[in-house]
Design a protein that fits this description.
Mean pLDDT: 85
């Protein structure tokens, strides 16, 4: 019997149990959802203010006000999925190592990385995710753009590639908890790194520090690829440079996931259980 249905069943159980937990503490769920959506609205207001003062309302050649809002909506979607599916689990992973509860995950007849990555789902992330969808629809309507079926499929595909790149970096940093004990600082470092991907890569196309940042976060730690590629599919899907980035995004996704999985299992070899 295929293992895939079993994993999907486990994931459905995680989703159901997490929803039951969140609905048990509804006030906390509502407050968490409202606070995360408030952060979205404050950021959106900041960018509206910026475009009020930017000459001709453009960043580079392609990112006008509503094109950038498409970029921002893509960022919101990726961040919401990362927060909802993985962030809480990555933070909890270091606590499992410190307290020894990782032992129980290791003896279960299921892939350990799958278990520690998806054991707890944050349903409150649906708030900023919904904001991202609404912002995307509003921006497309303002631009008069209706994505075709292929464009929509490619967008979803590369959106998931972006989530995978973000997740790979996160689980790799969380894995170092086995060697370092607590590594909340490294997870903070993950936030600092991913902040570079919140803007179109054109802003880094300057000599000196700008180009150094561009090459580092495009090819070495490919977080710029995570958001720029799916956003560009909506803004200018037929440009040759986009297809080069699209091809590299697939390679970067596979390489990032493979490297993070290798590091996770390499770290587990150094783990000493609470009873040892």
């Amino acid at each position: 019997m295929s293992q895939h249905p079993r994993y999907l069943s486990v994931l459905r159980t995680f989703l159901r149990n997490s929803l039951i937990r969140d609905m048990t503490f509804r006030a906390n769920f509502i407050i968490d959802t409202i606070s995360s959506m408030s952060w979205v609205f404050m950021n959106l207001g900041f960018y509206v203010l910026i475009f009020h003062y930017v000459d001709k309302g453009k960043i580079g050649e392609d990112w006008g006000k509503f094109e950038f809002f498409l970029f921002l909506s893509t960022t919101l979607l990726i961040n919401a999925m990362i927060r909802g599916l993985f962030l809480g689990n990555a933070v909890e992973f270091s606590e499992q190592i410190r307290t020894g509860t990782l032992d129980f995950a290791l003896v279960k007849p299921i892939d350990t990385q799958f278990l520690v990555s998806l054991g707890r789902i944050e349903w409150s992330a649906i708030g900023p995710f919904t904001c991202g969808v609404l912002l995307m629809g509003y921006s497309l309507a303002k631009l008069g753009v209706v994505p075709g079926p292929l464009q929509a499929v490619l967008y979803v595909f590369y959106l998931l590639c972006g989530v995978t790149i973000y997740y790979s970096l996160m689980i790799a940093m969380a894995s170092t908890s086995i060697w370092l004990g607590r590594n909340r600082t490294l997870l903070d470092f993950w936030f600092y790194i991913t902040n570079f991907s919140r803007y179109p890569m054109e802003i880094y196309e300057k000599e000196g520090l700008g180009m150094a940042l561009l090459w580092t976060f495009k090819f070495v730690i490919p977080v710029l690829i995570a958001v720029n590629v799916p956003a560009r599919i909506l803004v200018r899907p037929l440009h040759l440079q986009n297809w080069f980035l699209a091809g590299f995004a697939v390679i970067a996704t596979v390489a990032s996931l493979a490297a993070s999985r290798w590091l996770f299992h390499r770290a587990l070899l150094s783990y000493r259980s609470a009873s040892s």
